[in-house]
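Batch manifest line 410
LIGAND: S-adenosylmethionine
JOB: complex structure
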Amino acid sequence: MGYSDQFFQALGVSQGYGGNLAAVAKQCGIPAAKLKYYNEKNIIPSGCDLEKIEAATGITEMLLRLKMGRLNKDLIQAIQQYSAELLPILDNHKPLIESPLDDCNLEFQTDLGKLYRGDCYSLLKSMDSDSIDLVFADPPFNLSKLYPSEINDNLKEEKYLNWCQEWIRECVRVLKPGGALFIWNLPKWNASLTDFLGGMLTFRNWIGVDIKFSLPIQNRLYPSHYSLLYYVKGEKPNVFHPDRLAMDVCPKCLGDLKDYGGYKSKMNPKGVNISDIWTDIPPVRHAKYKRRKGSNELSLKLLDRIIEMASDEGDLVFDPFGGSGTTYMAAELKNRRWVGCELGPSEVIQQRFDVIDEERKILEGYRSQINNLFPEKVKKLREKKGLWTCETVKEPRKKEPQISLFAAKG
Ligand SMILES: C[S@@+](CC[C@H](N)C(=O)[O-])C[C@H]1O[C@@H](n2cnc3c(N)ncnc32)[C@H](O)[C@@H]1O
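JOB STATUS: finished
ARTIFACT:
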């Protein structure tokens, strides 16, 4: 992975047999390995390295920034100032997605939704502007995974991000004003996309979704969350009704995990406010629950929460990356209309709809646990153990005699 040699091109470096990397490294007084790092990550050198490059080659930071596409405020200002002169040059620039648009075929439909087979970019191009209430996208993470669609999941970083920008731009076009866009990805990719998204939409949240049982990576902080970006088109969302969550209790004794002190009576019996850190989304790892062997499948609980939060019944939900169809299933069960797309085979999605009643039970199980400070089972067990519940703390208290701290001594 990496960018397309923009740093090396700026410096006039050619690599491999007969290349001049060693010579340029010597000329600049910077180790070749370090120059390779700048090139691989498309990073503008700073400090002494930048000074050495300028002294040895005459290439300035500004030129490097232009050649490497890393614009800063000065360059952005210059582009704004000379926009009329730049426009004819930009109009001649070839589009990033060069392949002709393929047709997307309708694979199957329900009363509420339609699933297409093909490239989501083609499907998006055929969709009306301002027509979708909620977009949820869980693209491939570019982690060299094997998908049944046989896509290349090991693109150069730059190519992957360019591709993301293309489908995101179309998703934004089809989104209704006030509609919501969610993107599920690794923090690394979502961090790189926020600037682009911020130019078209209003940022709402970076939601950190706890990864259960992730593996440590050497010399890195232990990665323990996925990023879920949440944006809206325009200033305010059309719909925002987040679920309230049950209070965390000890799984063994059901006692309080936090000391709520005198604030118990102030707690909302419907549950606690949901935050931007979600720790209760289960992974779909067990083969028994997995619809598609060997690849990513999100929990119905995650899509239930998102769809509940950002859409109403009858609204239209779009997910460009079908996978095993979790979004479509959640939308169907929650009476939302939906449009989906999957490049690869979609039998697994259709089979899922054949057992929709099983999925409904799973979803009902999740919903029975929320919007209630103590779900029924927990409440009963707490009552049995003499622990407080909403009813006990909300009972009018007997007036206790006031004891003055300044009572007269002796
Ligand atoms: C990470 S998976 C989505 C998993 C899904 N959210 C779920 O819960 O099952 C990404 C899916 O996008 C599909 N895909 C990749 N590129 C695509 C494209 N250009 N158009 C449509 N689908 C694509 C892949 O085949 C893969 O099934």
